[in-house]
């Protein structure tokens, strides 16, 4: 048990590196997005949510391409992408961007 913990501690993605602490800090974005799920859609910033979606998509690719592959960062940004896309869809629906297409399709 102690040797496996020591191996993790000294690994290239262990807690002595930024490959560990960067993703841990980025979970704050996911938590903030989860809190935003309880807010009314009118309070959501479409520009910021879009920026967070682009940011997470870019860093998911980075986490996959970097060596050693950073699965913790990938999981963090995949979770953030999911939460932010949901919030973006709530905002777009509240702004009327998604509801108009349904009305046009039903009238035809």
TrEMBL record:
Subcellular location: Mitochondrion inner membrane
Any one of the GO BP annotations: pyruvate import into mitochondria
Lineage: Eukaryota, Viridiplantae, Streptophyta, Embryophyta, Tracheophyta
Protein name listed in UniProt: Mitochondrial pyruvate carrier
Lineage top rank: taxon: Eukaryota
UniProt entry tagged with the keyword Transport: yes
Alphabetical keyword list: Membrane, Mitochondrion, Mitochondrion inner membrane, Pyruvate, Transmembrane, Transmembrane helix, Transport
Pfam short name (any one): MPC
UniProt keyword Transit peptide, yes or no: no
Role, per record: Mediates the uptake of pyruvate into mitochondria.
GO cellular component: mitochondrial inner membrane
Protein family (similarity comment): Belongs to the mitochondrial pyruvate carrier (MPC) (TC 2.A.105) family.
Membrane topology type: Multi-pass membrane protein
InterPro entries with a match to the protein in the record: MPC
